[in-house]
Every structure is written in C-alpha cells, then in structure tokens.
C-alpha cells in the first residue's frame, strides 16, 4: 500500500501554522511483464493532487534495496544505463514516473520500490517485474531416421531451449490425437537460468498410416509458443504401391523364365523324338530277311 504524508510550515506574524497540503499517492501496477532481450516497463504514476500543483523534487527507484535510478537536485543518476525514465523528456511536472528497463534480462526480475518527494507530499509503493523468455523453434529427429518398416519400434525426439520460466512439450499425431502421456520430458535449467526441454515419444509399432507427428511447446501459462512437425521416413519397399509394382515385375520375370524353360524343354523333347525315329528307321533298313540272295 502506498504511504503518503505532507507537511507545510507557514509563519504568519508571531504564529507558526502547521497544516497539510494536498496529499499525493503513487499508483503502480502490481505486476509487470517483461520479455527477455526486449524493453520492459514498470508502470507507476503520481496521483492525488492537481497536476499544476505538483512539483516532483526526488524520485528513487530501487530493486532489492539497491538504487537503480534516482532523480535529485535536477540530476538523473543511474549505475546501469539500461534503467531510464519511461518518458525521455521527463521533467518535475510529469506525473509519469514509470521505469523503463532496456534489453531486459532474467536478473531484472524481482521486486521494485518507487519513492517520490514532491512539494505536496511524499509517497512510496512496491511493484514487481516478471521476465519471460520465448522458447526456440523445436528441433525434431528420430531413431531410426530412415528405412522404417511396418511395426518397427521408433523413438521420436523434440528439443527446445532458451525459454523462461519452465515450459512443457505436448505431442500429437497427424489426426490430432494427444500422445503427451506416452512421452518422457526432461526440463533442465542452464547456467544462464534459461530452460531446455527435451522430450521423447516412443512409437512401439510404427505404421505408414501414421507418418506425421507434431511437437508443441507451451510456456509456463500453458500458452503455445512454438510448434514443429515431423514425418517418419519409411523404407521405399514398404510402400504398398511400390511393393505391388515390384510384385508385378517379379511375376513377369518368373513368367518369362518359365516360358524360356518350357520352350527349351519342348525343343529337347522334339529333338529326342526325331533322333529316336531316325534310329528306328536305320535299324529297320539294316535288317536282311532270311533266305534272301544277292
């Protein structure tokens, strides 16, 4: 909750009068969302007095009790140039004291405190910044990669990295059937605090009727960020059309062989018959009847 107080001292003759001028408050967005490597805004503005009556003398922005931006004595000071006033031409009459964080990083996530002192009072308020990093497009692969056959066991992999906070991977086939419960997913946080997702879906009996699989990356709010598709590569002779064509060619080859073999067999049989007839004629011609004379 914002704290505010104001004290105004006036001297009239011999009397000192203490009274309160218009009170000020800070209206800050409770939670702000930032995107890694992009500019982020922590929204905060002065409320409670007429704009023409407010002259801001001090603004202090702190993160975890460390000052990141300060305006005092007509000078803006910061230890990190990534922290700036949201409005570049900010002046003491500007009620918008929002903090701009350029090139947002994961270390910028946390609680922030804003303090202002004006000629109408002072106030402070707490707010926070949540940083989100988008996951990269998934990379998919399979074991085996090629020459898959019917009913073969196949492992399909999906990898995505660079995201924050931790996300999940869901699996679907070409008919939009959800196979996520059959998959194994590992979530690893790297040194830069980003997360890497590695998931494996095991297809126990691959089928050419289920070629396509889809890997969907969801963020921590279960919102889709990236998607990739993968088709299993079956062996060419596993294709029914190609198999049928190969079968036809095989049948034609066998038929041709049988025709040739049959022709040869017929030729040999005819040759044997001809030789047999010649042999019989020769034997008949060489026989001499008994009692015949020359």
Describe this structure in words.
- This protein is rod-shaped.
- The termini are far apart.
- It folds into 2 domains: 130 residues, Immunoglobulins (Immunoglobulin-like), CATH 2.60.40; 98 residues, Immunoglobulins (Immunoglobulin-like), CATH 2.60.40.
- It is of the alpha+beta class and 294 residues long.
- The strands form 6 sheets. Strands 1, 5, 8, 9, 10, 13 and 14 form a 7-stranded mixed beta sheet that branches. Strands 15-16-19-18 form a 4-stranded antiparallel beta sheet, with no helix packed on it. Strands 6-12-11 form a 3-stranded antiparallel beta sheet, with no helix packed on it.
- Helix content is 16%, strand content 43%.
- It has 1 helix and 21 strands.
- The longest helix is centred in the last third of the chain and has 47 residues.
- It comes from Paramormyrops kingsleyae.
């Amino acid at each position: 909750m914002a704290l505010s107080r104001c004290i105004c001292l006036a001297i009239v003759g011999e009397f000192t009068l203490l009274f309160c001028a218009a009170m000020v408050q800070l209206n800050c967005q409770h939670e702000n969302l930032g995107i890694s490597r992009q500019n982020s805004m922590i929204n905060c503005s002065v409320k409670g007095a007429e704009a023409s009556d407010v002259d801001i003398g001090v603004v202090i922005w702190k993160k975890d009790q460390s000052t990141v931006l300060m305006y005092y004595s007509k000078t803006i000071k910061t230890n990190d140039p990534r922290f700036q006033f949201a409005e570049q031409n900010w002046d003491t009459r500007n009620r918008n004291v929002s903090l701009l964080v350029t090139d947002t990083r994961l270390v910028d996530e946390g609680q922030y405190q804003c303090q202002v002192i004006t000629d109408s009072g002072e106030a402070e308020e707490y707010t926070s910044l949540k940083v989100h990093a988008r996951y990269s497009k998934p990379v998919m692969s399979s074991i085996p990669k090629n020459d898959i056959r019917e009913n073969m066991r196949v492992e399909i992999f999906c990898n995505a990295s660079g995201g924050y906070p931790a996300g999940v991977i869901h699996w679907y086939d070409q008919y939009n059937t959800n196979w996520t419960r059959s998959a194994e997913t590992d979530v690893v946080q790297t040194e830069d605090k980003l997360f890497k997702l590695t998931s494996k879906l095991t297809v126990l009996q691959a089928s050419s009727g289920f070629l396509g699989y889809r890997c969907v990356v969801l963020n921590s709010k279960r919102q889709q960020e990236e998607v990739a598709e993968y088709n299993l590569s079956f062996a060419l002779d596993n294709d029914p059309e190609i198999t049928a064509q190969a079968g036809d060619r095989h049948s034609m080859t066998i038929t041709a062989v049988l025709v040739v073999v049959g022709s040869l067999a017929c030729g040999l049989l005819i040759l044997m018959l001809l030789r047999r007839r010649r042999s019989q004629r020769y034997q008949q011609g060489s026989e001499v009847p008994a009692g015949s004379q020359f």
